[in-house]
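Aggregate trends can hide what the representation actually does to any particular protein. This step matters because it turns folding into a mapping between discrete strings. For completeness, the protein is quoted in full, as a sequence line and a line of structure tokens:
=====
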Amino acid sequence: MLASTGIKGLLAYRALRKMNGDGASTTNDKGNLVTSSKLSNATTPPSVVAMTGSAYAISKMTNAPKIQRFLLKSTLSASVAGLLNAGLKRLIGRKRPRAETGPDLKGPALKDKFNSMPSGHASAVAAVAGCIPRTSGPLLLASTAGLAATAVIGRSRTKRDAHHLSDVLVGSCLGFGVAYAVSKLEKPVEAEVENLKQNRHMQK
């Protein structure tokens, strides 16, 4: 599974490099969906967590355990990735491409112009994409769509001069890594919960 996570990061990175190389004439087209502020606002870590969390709450009213499990893992992964990302941004203190003044690396900083590394948007989207089950059929297509979404968000952040390409790569790897960690912890947690239920049942 770790190798699969690394491959996902590499594929998203290569897709992003190709997308950044194509369509250079549209770099300043702010009306483009990829560079729109709406897409940027919808893919912030808090927005992604809110969307997946709301979808999970709605899914609880249905009999779809696989979807519920995916949405729960997505919410947890996006939350953890967002927190780690926020801490790393302020610890590293890398200047955003659009910032006109200041050192490239300032170190610990709270100002937004030094919050370039890593990309929170890429982390959040990659965290969700990394939670998609790796099986054949429709889920394989969904996983591919998740990679494509990560690449699109990466292009959006670089075209808006909010991040360097390396920020997006690190953010994507962070998101995929968190999703991998959450998936590895899922079975032990489920086993512990099941044991607690059985113990309570025996005590009654």
In short: The two ends are 40 Å apart (CA to CA). The longest helix spans residues 165-203. The chain has seven helices and no strands.
